[in-house]
Amino acid sequence: MREAASRLDEVVQEYRRTRPAEGSDDEQRLLLDLARTSVAIMEALGTGFFAFAREQLDPALWSAWKHEMEGVDEVKKFAVHQLGRALESFGVILEAVARDLEGLPPEVAERLTSVNSALLLRADAPLDADTRQFLRWEADLAAAVASVDADAQELAHWATRASRGARFVQAQLAGLLPRRERGDRLLREAQRSWDDWDDEEIREELRPWDGD
Questions:
Q1: Tens-digit pLDDT profile for residues 172-204
Q2: d(C-alpha 199, C-alpha 202), whole Å
């Protein structure tokens, strides 16, 4: 766990230092490193990951608020304000995911994490546009948090990206919700589709597959 956390910090610092171009091979490598390291921490903590993430989020929010209240540089005050809003967005998304996973049996949640880990450990794992956007936002947000005590322009660069990324990710998730609700409704309808059938209708429906 400690090794993974240290590696995560190294990846964020390299991302912050090099500012890889969007869509470049360097960005792909760093985003995959970020994802793999995050999954390693999730595997180590299980569903306790969400409590860990909450513990990291609150001090970051407090730091952003403190810098905003005490700041005299208008650029930096606005940057930490943007950072605070991006952190709030991250918190909302974190709680939404936690609500789904924490309600699952531990072995199911562990299996989901293992599947994600296996996919991300592939050296040639391609990143689709939505996954890349989400990981880029995570990297931008982490870089912004790490830049709170840096100069105003450095912080403004990452905070602006984190704020913009939060809007993109929220829009992606908003598009997923209607599809998920429709899928849940269709599943419920399919599960209840035979409720009003009598025994003869069910036998007739199954006749082509019963071998008679």
A1: 777 655 555 555 555 555 555 556 666 676 666
A2: 5
Residues 6+ apart with CB under 8 A from 144: 79, 83, 86, 155, 158, 159, 161, 162
- pTM, rounded to two decimals: 0.71
Token couple for 62 = 């407090």
Tokens of residue 184, six digits: 């849940």
Residue 183 structure tokens:
């899928």
Helices (H), the chain: 2-18, 25-45, 48-70, 74-102, 106-120, 129-146, 152-191, 199-206
Pick from 11-25, 65-79, 80-94, 95-109 the range whose average pLDDT is largest. Answer: 11-25
DSSP 55-79: HHHHHHHHHHHHHHHH---HHHHHH
CB neighbour class for 174 (10 Å; exposed up to 12, middle 13-18, buried from 19) = exposed
Domains in the chain: boundaries? 2-209
Per-residue pLDDT tens digits for 85-144: 888 888 888 887 777 766 666 665 666 555 555 555 555 566 778 888 888 999 999 999
Supply φ then ψ for residue 125, to 5 degrees.
-60, 120
Q: Is 68 exposed, middle or buried (0-12, 13-18, 19+ CB in 10 A)?
A: middle
